[in-house]
Amino acid sequence: MPVLAALVCAAGAKAQVDTLANQQLEEVVVAGVRVQKTAPYAVANIKKNELETFSKGGRELPFLFSQTPGVLAWGENGLGTGTVAMRIRGAAGSRINVTLDGVALNSPEDQTVFWANMNSYASLLGSVQIQRGIGTSTNGDGAFGGSVSLATGAPDTKPSVELTGSYGSYSTYNVGAKFSTGLLFGHLVFDGAYHETTTDGYIHGTGGRSGSYYGGLTWLDDRFRISYKNIGNFEKTGQAWNGVVTGNDDLTLMDGTYGAKTGISTYKDLYERGLGKYNPLYEYLLTDEKGFVKDADGNYTTARYTMRDGSYWNKTTDNFYQNHNILSFAFQPSAHWSHNIALHYTYGFGYYSELKQNAKFAKFGLTFYDKDGNFIKKSDFVRKKGLSQHTYGIVYNLNYKDEHWNVLGGLNLQQFRGGHFGYLTYIKNEEAEAKFRPGGADYKYYDSDARKFDYSGYIKANYRFAAYWNIFADLQYRHVEYKTDGLNDKFYKEGDGYRNQLLDISERYDFVNPKAGISYYRGGHKAYASIAYANREPERNNFTDNGSYPAPTPERMMDVELGYQYNGRNWHAGVNLYYMYYNNQFVQTGAQSDIGENLTTNIESSYRMGAELEAGWSPLSWLTLEGNAALSRNIIKDFDEMASENWDDSYRQIHYSHSSLAFSPSAILNGFLNLHYKGIEAVWHTNFVSRQYLDNTENATRSLPCYSQSNASVSYTLHPGKRFVGLKEAVFGISLNNVFNRRYAASGWVYSTILDSDGHPNDNRYTQIGFIPMAGFNMMGNITLKF
User: Fold this and answer.
1) What are the structural domains, with CATH classification, of the chain?
2) How far apart are CA 440 and CA 459, in angstroms?
3) pLDDT digits (tens, 9 = 90+) for 410-466
């Protein structure tokens, strides 16, 4: 505080920047990837006050986005912190384009965003726009389910300090601070922030710590703005990607206790009795020669893994550090013209450490005989898999506006260089340890490099005519080159030994992505229609995991949107209809490689179609009722499943003329009740998610049942005035999540095999499901002080 005061006094000048002009310059920065309210697209806008409120709970952004139509979010630790993921219209993270101030955030190789690396970003943002479907042209990877545009908040032109703290269930806490010097010398603002979340996690072994920091320097004038932003994040989180695993005759877990062969006949019974918190990446069941061991209370017991030196294996952890640097210049020389140019560089480095119990030496390309000449097939290992990333580029946008035209042109030039590596850091067998890790040196079992060049340009034009009509056209050209070489972490038998999968991939793609639409906008009415076509290059895994299938080819999609919205005095309503037709969409067929990896291939024809509804009503000044619904069909045409037989020894091809796409619920509903009176605000939120199939065969046994759960929050904002010198505002709040203690899983995985000779024909396969359960009732209290 004294330092900030000294800086402000040293400046000795009042604000000289026009507030409206500053706001317009903020819009210039994201104009290239966002659409205006007249655009013919399905859009959800999230404002700064919503972001600020959400940021106090420590959860990651997808859980806020899931309150908008068609978005589903889940987290591995059950609380929504750390490792979380999302889908839009059933499309996974690699099909959702994400930008920050117009700069692409998707990891270039796997084309997804890891939200664990973006802890508390909600507190740094000024607004978010979610476009469902292809949307308008953006920077970076193609949007095949939707795009998310994040915009950092405008720097505060008045000196300010904010402190926030939250604490809740499972020892979860979130602390943060941010400040602004206000305008120094009438033009310069220095602002910064730091946030950190720590939790024990709901699922055993998922405790972790993650945080973010921000520092910015901004020079403001009425017609131009220069800024440098450094945004970093770190995380060390316990992992539970296997979820809670159960099979037809295997382990089932109730309310955190453990049981086997308990007579549970359906997965619905398992839901009702509790999914449990057992994490096979962290602990394992104690067994003896008679089977599972019970404790004095009759519960099946677990133990931590004991290392050779008598210490315990800590837990499987994911560790990642990332740092973004964005230098941008926004210039508005006249009322009609504006420019924005940004130089950016992102560095990322991370790894995960994992215990592999009773794993084959062949898994790591090793053959081992002991001193007596006995062939040793298995041992316990700890592996460390990681990567490094360097992404840099330039983004430029030019915008012209007048009474009838709004024309945007843009360029995005981005290059990526990265590396993948894997080490064995521990082998339980002492002889093998001495052979492969002499002197304790880590054994490198794979190493590869990758490069990707992504160059694109677009022009967008909106023409207003006859006072209320708008025609929109958008044409993007995108050139992509992807190269990777080296040794991958897959091994094949060769003579008496094994060889790595050799990577030698060099592909280039040229895409033309046209879009067009028309809208009518008058008073509270908006009607629109649009058609868009887009292409998307294969991910890294589409190359490495396609096995004997043909080489992967780009996915293509046509998206048709039709909508109507009305905003009245105290109510609003809208409907959006869509049809998304895919050609060569990548899906898993059920086949596995000879080393157990799920294989993907292009499927010729599939589609998603649906209706998205929104409505709200404020019958009283202090009461608002709102809701949204996403109803859809998600179909693969002419799908051939490769069904496992006899524990992967062979496959049976089963044809489906129409089957539902996996992880694509046909209904997602949200309802909100908001009470707001003076400084008090209370929100009730209930959502419903219909059945999710875990593979592409539309089989109810291999699915997650539907679920519904409710959250509530209450906050009180106090303006103390002169009673507390320097304190401008104090906010006290509490969040109650899963109020009715529902037992449900929002995501998972499935394995099934046909065992005709063992009582498991195709219509009653042996099935194993990994559930990703969410926590029961949990709560978080918070306090925020603004100076």
Assistant:
1) 157-242+316-786 (2.40.170.20), 244-278+282-303 (no CATH)
2) 57
3) 999 999 999 999 999 999 999 999 999 999 999 999 999 999 999 999 999 999 999
